[in-house]
Automatic annotation (TrEMBL):
It holds the Pfam family Epimerase. Belongs to the NAD(P)-dependent epimerase/dehydratase family. Dihydroflavonol-4-reductase subfamily. It comes from Glarea lozoyensis (strain ATCC 74030 / MF5533). The keyword Oxidoreductase applies. It comes from the Eukaryota. This is Uncharacterized oxidoreductase.
Length: 347
């Protein structure tokens, strides 16, 4: 019988890919979702329908992931946990006095909830958590101040107590503080399992939970794709770090391999120290999708701006024995999905 893995946050950009890759790797998946409608949406995605996992994919409905003991039932009988669920920032939807209560504390509580549930459950071997590069890269250096420092997965930053200048800085602080809380939990408790933190940069790629073309340009994908649609992404000069969604999902699944030593952080950032040059999407699209550009389906005329941020994820490639997909592959996967959903020729 294949090992059972609980996946939280399975209906997001990273989550749906993680479910698929876990099933393809031979795991049995229990996906935690908020509603039955979300479970039905997962089952309706083309890749899952083609795979036809049957009993190898089941769902547990958790309406409120921040409720006390939210995951206690979900973790029963599982061998591994992949914890993807976390508050997501989509614009400045909070006032400054809400950052702590509505963004930071939920991020910390969600992580602690999965860790305490695992602590109470025998048989678990590893918990893999989605963190972020902003958990180890200082906010100012990440978003605005250009420095020559090359940040890697050993870097640690001071506890960001606030106040926070905007919602994205508060989001960054939530990732730092959740990571600090995780390390403290591991240090202070005698655990039968270990933790691996995966730290993605801006995640770019196709999302099978998008069933309409207008939904494709969402979240971090907008940093690359808005310019292709002739729109302003709203990000401003964007740190030069990106990663293909498939690589992030792949890392989560392959982190379950006992050959990968536990209690480590792994950055997920492509393109080496040079980093992503966001405006190169214009040429990538012109080169790979000339007909769609010529027809005006892809205006491809609003170049983004890149802010240099040096991040080194080479140790991740070395430990896992793979190479991150390029920015070109990231952009192509988004455009291909967009054109497919429009019913247009992909060429």
């Amino acid at each position: 019988m294949s090992a059972l893995v609980l996946i939280t946050g399975g209906t997001g950009l990273i989550g749906i890919k993680t479910i698929l890759l876990a099933l393809q790797a031979g795991y049995t998946v229990r996906a935690a979702v908020r509603t039955q409608e979300k479970a039905d949406a997962v089952l309706a995605t083309p890749s899952i329908k083609t795979l036809n996992p049957r009993s190898h994919l089941t769902f547990i409905i958790i309406p409120d992931i921040l409720a006390d003991n939210a995951y206690d039932e979900a973790v029963k009988g599982v061998k591994f946990i992949i914890h993807l669920a976390s508050p997501v920032v989509k614009g400045d939807g909070f006032t400054a006095d809400q950052y702590e209560s509505e963004l930071i504390q939920p991020a910390i509580k969600g992580t602690m909830s999965i860790l305490t549930a695992a602590q109470k459950t025998p048989g678990i071997q590893r918990v893999v958590i989605t963190s972020s590069e902003v958990a180890i890269v200082p906010w100012e250096e990440f978003i605005s101040k250009e420095v020559d420092t090359v940040f890697d997965d050993t870097y640690e930053i001071p506890f960001p107590a606030g106040p926070y200048g905007n919602v994205f800085e508060a989001y960054s602080a939530s990732k730092v503080r959740a990571l600090v809380a995780t390390k403290q939990f591991v240090r202070e408790n005698k655990l039968e399992w270990d933790v691996i933190n995966i730290m993605p940069s801006f995640v770019i790629g196709d999302n099978e939970m998008n069933f309409k073309a207008e939904d494709v340009c969402d979240g971090t994908v907008a940093a690359a794709f808005s310019q292709v649609l002739g729109r302003d992404s709203g990000w401003g000069p964007t740190p030069s770090t990106s990663v293909h969604v498939r690589d992030v999902a792949w890392l989560h699944v392959h982190s379950l391999d006992p050959k990968i030593e536990g209690n480590q952080n792994f950055l997920a950032v492509s393109e080496g120290e040079r980093g992503t040059v966001w405006e190169e999407a214009i040429e990538i699209v012109k080169r790979n999708f000339p007909k769609a550009v010529e027809k005006g389906i892809l205006p491809n005329n609003k170049p983004a701006q890149t802010k240099r941020t040096k991040v080194d994820a080479s140790r991740t490639e070395k430990v896992f024995g793979f190479k991150f997909l390029s920015y070109e592959e990231q952009v192509k996967s988004v455009v291909e999905q967009y054109l497919t959903l429009l019913g247009e020729e992909v060429a």
